Amino acid sequence: MQKCWIVNKKYPETFAKEFPEFSSIYLQLLWNRNINNQTLIDEFFNSDYEQDIHDPYLMKDMDIAVKRIFKAIESDEKITVYGDYDVDGITSSVVLINMLIELKSVIKQISQEEAKDYIDIYVPDREIEGYGLNKKAINKIKKNNTDLIITVDCGVSNFDSVEKIKSLAMDIIVTDHHHVPEKTPNALAIINPRQKDCKYPFKELAGVGVSFKLVQALLIELEKRKLKGKIKLTKGFEKWLLDLVALGTIADCVALVGENRTLVKYGLLVINKTRRLGLQKLIKNAGTRVRENGNVTEIKSIDATSIGFMLAPRLNAAGRMDHANTSYELLISENEAEAEELSNKLEKNNQNRQRITEKAMVEIRQRIGKYKKIPKLIIEQDSDWRIGIVGLVAGKLSDEYSRPILILQQKEDIFAGSGRSIPEFNLIKAIEKCKDILISFGGHSQAAGLKIEKKNFKKLKKKLEQIAEESIKDEDLIPSAEIDCQIEHNQINWKLIDEIEKFKPFGQGNNKPVFLTRKLEVHEIRTVGNDNAHLKLCFKSNLDERKVKYFNAIGFRLGKFANEMPNGKPALRWGDIVDVVFQLEINEWNGNRELQMNILDLKISE
Q: Is the pTM of this model over 0.85?
C-alpha cells in the first residue's frame, strides 16, 4: 500500500521574524518539535546539567523514600533492589545498587566489599516469572532476610504483591515510570512522575531516569551530612552514572526532549570514556559496521543510534533468551576475563534472538495471509514463541501492517505477552478496560504487556477487537510518512547536514528529520543485499539546466520497487521522474565521505 505523505504545516511568519538568524529549514525543524521560544531553544541546543536537571525532591514521596533508605543504611538493615529484565530495568538496578553500596560504605566507614553484604539484587526471569513483582520472588527475598525492597522500572501496578510484602513485615518503595493505574499499591512511597498529584515538571523519564532522581536525592541528603564533616563521597560519583542513564533512556524509547535530552547528552560524553569494563567489552564486540560494499568501518564514537541498534539489543538479548542477570553482571563486572566471557555470551544470545524472531514473524505473516479480512487489532498466540521475543515481533509487525498487534505465548493454562500500537490507539487504556479478566498488565499507550488465564483468552480477544473496531478509523490504518518539510534539490547539501547534526541526539519526540523533494530523475538503479532486499539508486537533478547534480541513495527493504511499485503500479525504471521522502546522512567508507539519501518512500511524480 502506498503510504500517505503528511507534510507539516509551515511555521508562522511571526516565528521567522523572531529568529531571523535561522534558515527556513532550521525554523521548520524547530517548529515541528514545539521548540518555539528562546527558552526552549536554549534548553534544546545548550543543555546545561546544572540548570536543566530538576530538583528530585519535587517528586512525590521522595522525602519519605530518602528517610527510609537512610534508616535502613544506618540500622544495618538488608535492602533488596527489585529490577526488571530489559535494558531500562537493568541499568536502573545498577545505578541504584551503585548508590546504595557507596552510601553504606561512606556512612558506616566500611569497604565497598563489606557494604555489598547489606545490598542485594533480584531480577525476575522473563520466561518463568514475567514482568513486575511476583509472590514467589517475594518469598525468596524474605528468606534472604530483607527488610526493605526498592523496585526499579516496575511495581506501580502490583497492588496484591505489595500487600504480600507488607504482610511479611517488609517495607517497600516503588520507583517506576509506567502508566499509573486507578488503584495504586499501598507502598511506603511511590516515586513516579506520572502520578496525578506529583508536581515533578517532567513526566517522560525512563525507569533509569527515576532511579537516578532517587540517587540525586540521596546525594543531596548525603551532602548535608558531609557539611557536618562526617563523611567523604567519591569524586564525580553522580556524573559517572550517566553512561547507564543514557543507555537505559535511549533503549526504552522515551521522548528525548527536556530533561531526558540533557541526561542523554551528558551520558553520551560519559559512555564514550566509560570506566565500566563490561560496557567497554560490549562496545568492542558491537564495534564494527559492515557496509553494503563489504568494507568495514570502525565506529568512532557511541551515539544514540549505536546504543539503540547495537548495544541495547545485545543487553536485551540476555532477558529474551536466557536470564537478564547476564547483562546485570556484565555492567557491574570488575574483572576483565569475566567481562569478556559475559559479553561473548550476549553476542551469541543476540544472534539466536535474531533467528527465532524472524521465524516467529514468518509464521505470523502466514497466519495473517489466511485471514478473510484483517481486523483492526491483531492478536496471535502460540506455545512455541518465546516470551522474550513477542514484544519485538509485535513491534515489527505493527509497523508492517500499520495497526495494533498483540502477541502472546501460551504456557499451560496461562497466556502472557506484549503488544505494540499505532499513535491513534492507546493500547494500555484498551487493556485496562479488560482488567477484570486479567491476571496482570502494565505499560504505555504504544507498548504494553499482560497475563491472562487460558479460559479468558477468547473474552479478551473479542473485547479488544471490539474496542479497536469502535475507536480506530479506517484512515488510521493507512501507513503514513510524517515529513518535516519539502526542500529543493539545491538545498540537499553539506550545509543541511550541519544543521541536522545540531539536533542530535535523535529519538522519540525528536526524530531524525525527514524531507520531501520532487521531480528527481532515476539515473541508476539496482538491487543489493540478501534476496535483493534493498534498492541502490543514483538520482539526477535537471531543474537547473546550468548545473546537473547527482545524489546517491539507498532504500532499505525497498528492493521490491524494482519489481512493482505500491498499489500495483509498474516497476521503477531508469529515466522515471520521482518524488522522494528521505533522511539525509553521511556515508563513510575507506576514509571517504559523501552525502547519501536514505529513502523512506518514493512514488512517480504527477
A: yes
